[in-house]
User: What shape does this take?
Amino acid sequence: MGSNIFCAGFAQLSDGRILVAGGNAGAALDGTVQTRIFDWRTETWTRGKDMAAPRWYPSVAQTANGEEVIIGGGPATAEVYQTNGAIRALTSFTKAGGRLYPFLGSRPDTQLGLFGPYTTGYTINTAGNGAITATITRDAIHRDYGSFATYDIGKSLVAGGGSVTEGGAASVPTKTGTVISSGAGPTATVAATGSMSAGRRQFNATLLADGSVLATGGMTSAASSDLVDLDHPMTAAERWDPATGAWTVLASASRIRQYHSTASLLPDGRVMTGGGGICGICMTAGYLEKNVEYFTPPYLYKKDGSGELAARPVIGTAPASIGIGATVTVSTAQAASIKKVALAGLSDVTHSVNQGQRYVPVALHHGRHHADRDRPAQRRRGPARLLPAVRHCRRRCAVGRQDRAGGQGSQPADEPGQHDGQPLHRHAVVRDRHQDLRAELHLQRQQGAGADPAAG
Assistant: This one.
């Protein structure tokens, strides 16, 4: 490629390709101005437009109109990768320019939320030159190398990170968590939630198929290093329940996952954790994990304590793409027992930060019996590539094929498991020949970059 994309920022474009922004220019750890596009269909790289300034450790997040906002990594001024490939500066947003991946999330009102790791958060209108429309104080902890997950529309969990005095111990990451909620107004609300069993940093918070959040890996001390501490690893997984705000300790991994480790939800409902290492102190400590492990969440097991895997609902057929405002049919022989349907975004994870994962519950209509989750017809970001998550009445989960969201006109179907997409807001229906199982998601595409977020 002609450049080093080590510690760059990246995110999926609307058609499923990957935008990579910045990277490492050399031993001095200077950033690069280059952007690159990876096309998964042809496995080829293409050079994009250059950014105005070099970046190393930036975050990239997609907005409702399909643009990608690039924040951090050195320069103070944010930039936007437009849908036509051009890059413009957000001259009115000059915050969070440090070399630390910001926590970003698209809001229901189409604006962008920045809620970590810094204590101050912002609501950003990314149209034109940009504008800060609200400012919040999340909490008093600088949560560097903490993690977050957007577990519902407009709701994100921020947990762990930092180096504080807590529980009588100094220089430890916090075990606390905070929920950031955004709605109709530009100012997000902040609420404390349950704490993990121990503080973590350098861990991953991964959205599960049932809408809960899994914490894996990390270190429980920041006294000797910000990046790696093999004497203080955290190997036990913990699950956060959004209904109760409580964490539950689950099974432990056999390998240590700290700096440069990763974790992602798989299409079969499990979580893949892997990697770790590649840094100066990593080499000194002998930390290099060239392997992966798989975590099987409790929802995939029978509830009788036998330890056997449960029978799972199976998505029989599904369309390769979904048009905006279209009705979609998905067949399943287990329609009568299914209690929940949702859409889960695919991961864009690096350095404990995952901008791509998000969970969109959809209204469910099952035959003559209806369990509705109504959503207002607001313009907000729809997943570009999706995993339909279907849950049994006994909390057994199945996560299906990847689907393409959006798209204009008639397009050929992709091969199963190879679907790209566009941002959308849509209506979806799941049914089989015996029972109707209907899931509705009413969303609309943002009409251009200059759309007024207040218009809903």
